[in-house]
Amino acid sequence: MSPEQVRYLALSFPFVTEGFPFDENTLVFKVGGKMFLLIDLLTTDRLTLKANPDEVFTLIDEHSWILPGYHMNKSHWITIKLMDDNTKPQFIQKLIETSYSLVYKKLSKKVKNGLEGR
Predict the structure, then answer these.
(1) Cα end-to-end distance, the chain, whole Å
(2) Is residue 118 part of a domain?
(3) Which of 17, 63, 68, 94 has its CA 20 to 30 A from that of 52?
(4) Residue 18 region by backbone torsions, left for phi larger than 0, else alpha for psi between -120 and 50, else beta
(5) Percent of the chain, pLDDT > 90?
(6) What is the tens place of the pLDDT at every residue in 65-104?
(7) Strand, coil or helix: what is 55?
């Protein structure tokens, strides 16, 4: 899965914004002001995303191309090596969808209502 495909997928979810809050090289995707996905545009071979805390260590153990989240809470975030020959695009897509869902689900009712125009 290329960084362009990752970006396209991330922007397909409702209420997603993208920006560069840290530096000009780290593209961050947010929903309701909360991060769910980061891509380093210099290397473009890795992305960092939120994961279910109950699954983080299993994912890391079972897949050589999944690492603890780079510069993030290792219990909640993972980093994926995109250029690894073992990566499976459908699985990465599912991980991105899960990341978005985890973050959206934790948004306050007030933020969700604002996003949804209620």
Answers:
(1) 36
(2) no
(3) 17
(4) beta
(5) 69
(6) 899 988 887 889 999 988 766 668 889 999 999 999 999 9
(7) coil
Decide: residue 42, CB within 10 A, 0-12 exposed, 13-18 middle, 19+ buried: exposed
46-73 pLDDT, tens digit each: 899 999 999 999 999 999 889 998 888 7
pLDDT of residue 110: 94
Structural domain that includes position 21: 3-113
CATH number, domain at 83?
3.90.1150.30
Beta-bridged to residue 80, according to DSSP, are 47, 66
Model pTM? Answer: 0.91
> Number of folded domains in the chain?
1
Q: Scan for tokens 């362009």, then name that residue.
A: 4
Q: Pick from 46, 51, 47: which is nearest to 38 by CA?
A: 47
